[in-house]
Amino acid sequence: MRTRVKICGITREQDALAAVRAGADALGFVFYPPSPRHVEVAQARQIIRSLPPFVTTVALFVNADRGSIAEVVQETGIDLIQFHGHECPDYCAEHGRPWIKAIRMQDGLDPDKAMADYAGAQALLLDAYRPGVPGGTGETFDWRRIPEHLAGRIILAGGLTPDNIAHAVRQVKPYAVDVSGGVEAEKGIKDADAIQRFMRGVQLGQE
């Protein structure tokens, strides 16, 4: 099965279109004001309206209230919600969209238990853990911690770059990978060449 790719932290139309041209399957929009990749609702709506068909759009939230999520869903028509905070499974399921749950791989975390706890999720996104930081650390974690029987059901994130993605795909064999900082010229601004190299690395990892 082909490894899918999500390019996250999109803030500009030209970056979104560059990612699509490179073959990205999904684009992520960060609705978390402390993030340097935060995007306003109107800005995200304009970018999403510029996209061709068959590109999945993902809204990322961190412990957001219901009203904020409802506004984004209504105004942007987002396809999928990604929860990156301490949201419980019941809360994740309340918003009328399929969803994925980000799990930070801190010491002692059991991926099998997390999968069982969030059984209603479309997938789990496994990310690196740094205390107090909900994501976007640019750090990897020990991929050997991912049970082989779960690999085809997870999205691998955390410190992925054009230089390590082929090795990551080859070792983990995830359903999908998620990259943000690893393909940026600066925070929130993507590098079209880095996106191309990242996509080639994904392909190389599957050969």
Walk me through this protein's architecture.
There is one protein chain. The mean pLDDT is 94. With 207 residues, this protein is an alpha/beta fold. The longest helix has 14 residues, at 192-205. The chain has one domain (4-205): Aldolase class I (TIM Barrel), CATH 3.20.20.70. Strands 1-2-3-4-5-6-7-8 form an 8-stranded parallel β-barrel, surrounded by 4 helices. It contains 7 helices and 10 strands. It has helices at 13-22, 41-49, 66-76, 89-92, 111-117, 165-172, 192-205, and strands spanning 4-7, 26-30, 56-61, 80-83, 99-104, 123-127, 154-156, 176-179, 184-186, 189-190. Helices cover 30% and strands 20% of the residues.
Number of strands: 10
Query: CATH superfamily, called what?
Result: Aldolase class I
Low-confidence stretches: none
The CATH class, by name, is Alpha Beta
Report the helical percentage: 25-40%
Average per-residue pLDDT, rounded, comes to 94
Briefly note the CATH topology name: TIM Barrel
How does CATH name the architecture? Alpha-Beta Barrel
Structural classification: alpha/beta
Quick synopsis:
The protein has 207 residues and is of the alpha/beta class. It is built from 7 helices and 10 strands.
SSE topology sketch:
Blueprint: E1 4-7, H1 13-22, E2 26-30, H2 41-49, E3 56-61, H3 66-76, E4 80-83, H4 89-92, E5 99-104, H5 111-117, E6 123-127, E7 154-156, H6 165-172, E8 176-179, E9 184-186, E10 189-190, H7 192-205
Parallel strand pairs: 1-2, 1-8, 2-3, 3-4, 4-5, 5-6, 6-7, 7-8
Antiparallel strand pairs: 9-10
